[in-house]
Amino acid sequence: EAAVTQSPRNKVTVTGGNVTLSCRQTNSHNYMYWYRQDTGHGLRLIHYSYGAGNLQIGDVPDGYKATRTTQEDFFLLLELASPSQTSLYFCASSAEGLGNQDTQYFGPGTRLLVL
Amino acid sequence: SQWGEENLQALSIQEGEDVTMNCSYKTYTTVVHWYRQDSGRGPALIILIRSNEREKRSGRLRATLDTSSQSSSLSITAAQCEDTAVYFCATDAYQGGRALIFGTGTTVSVSP
Fold it and tell me: Which residues of chain B lie closer than 8 angstroms to A43, CB-CB?
């Protein structure tokens, strides 16, 4: 089974703070994704990547940057965190691309609180 | 949003009962994914039904897809306490790059 890990699992920061969320997958998947999950909204796609150095914009990218440094590692950056970014963040990976009838494997999530 | 409202936000049943949850979508899709999310964990795929399939079974799970009404359902037969989770449907609705769009989820609580 695909393994996706995330760190940290919990993070508290202040408004205007700088936060980096990390994700690593160990199954040589091409695609990696960052989602946020909020009550009433389900999972919403922030950014995704189909390989090292690649970045694609998702549905809710404002206020977020991302970087894919290797095939295994995908980072989500909040350079000026705001309370509206308080959320549960999930990383996922898949062998094929979005909507390609392919399974996405999710990490355990990072809970971020912006005060 | 690509989604219509899922019919039920929360369902509470007892062990042994059957349960069905529904979702609808607004645009063409080639597949509907159903994920379950346990408390404190990420979602995990439990069943996937393609647009050329009307029904798909996996153990006690049964998914249906009606492309004419753009709706899908997930049924659990003889629910058990360990079926307690949030269930999401997701489609590959095109959004200028074929995104996987998740619904808001149905919380299923199964009590002994």
Answer: 43, 88, 90, 102
